[in-house]
Amino acid sequence: MNAMKIENLVRDYGGGKGVFDVSFHVDQGEAFGFLGPNGAGKTTTIRHLMGFLKPKSGSCTINGLDCWRERDKVQARLGYIPGEISFFEGISGAEFLKFIAQYRGIGSQTRKEDLLERFELDPKSKIKKMSKGMKQKLGIVAAFMHDPDILILDEPTSGLDPLMQNRFIDLVAEEKKQGKTILMSSHMFEEVERTCDRIGIIRTGRMVAVDAAAALRERHTRSYTVTLENESAAEAFAADFNGVRDGLKVTVTTKQSLEEIFMNYYGGEKHDEHGAV
Ligand SMILES: Nc1ncnc2c1ncn2[C@@H]1O[C@H](COP(=O)(O)OP(=O)(O)OP(=O)(O)O)[C@@H](O)[C@H]1O
Ligand SMILES: [Mg+2]
């Protein structure tokens, strides 16, 4: 069953900006990675799913509910991390979490303490005094503490250090095991490759690929034949790279990393060694 469905979504900001005829779905219990560079249309698509924006044409549904017309119902069930987190700066993190809990109408947030501990966040300080990473952690706690079945996460790891990024990936993997439905946007190949079943790639407002992560890799299997200088070198090379030897020739089959696949679709250059675009 489709838990989330985006059909022919259009929002035209002019000058070629916006989202154009975007369609994809996320099945119940599935983790979907939404990849694309800055300005590609990830947040715009997600804001439609959250019912913050009315589609110019096309539609978004979550569990069969129209995300615009039935946004109150839709939002009540979700866990959401916005792309740009803005809080009421004057209050403390703890007060913010209390406010969110009251807004949701749930008295006790069973997972709050566990999440605060996991991300090593002390919520007592005023939000305006918090670092970027602390604010991001606060957003994570607020999104997960009521144990929602559907999670919409817009660049959830931005601002987190590598240790905390890993803790977040672990959290997402646990949620997935429990059957949660997850949409997660990212610039980072590694984190979606590690956590998501399927991946959609958006570029300048258009989907350029939607497929299983494994299928995306499979389709880009490459083989290279290398001629070595002598038999023993050929044998060693074949052993090292799991290749097939034919005399001095060794054929090695490799699967491109998702990052390489991604860059193929883009035709661009790798920007840094961490795989950010
Ligand atoms: N309210 C708006 N008015 C005009 N243009 C907008 C508006 N919101 C977004 N855009 C433009 O639409 C495009 C898509 O923006 P969006 O925020 O969806 O990108 P994104 O994929 O989330 O990027 P990032 O990775 O930087 O967060 C961008 O070119 C952006 O400048
Ligand atoms: Mg964004």
From TrEMBL:
Superkingdom of this protein's organism: Bacteria
Short name of any one Pfam family annotated for the protein: ABC_tran
Keywords associated with the record: ATP-binding, Nucleotide-binding, Transport
UniProt domain ABC transporter: residue ranges: 4-229
InterPro entries recorded: AAA+_ATPase, ABC_transporter-like_ATP-bd, ABC_transporter-like_CS, ABC_Transporter_VariousFunc, P-loop_NTPase
SMART domains documented for this protein: AAA (SM00382)
Entry GO MF terms: ATP binding; ATP hydrolysis activity
Protein name: ABC transporter ATP-binding protein
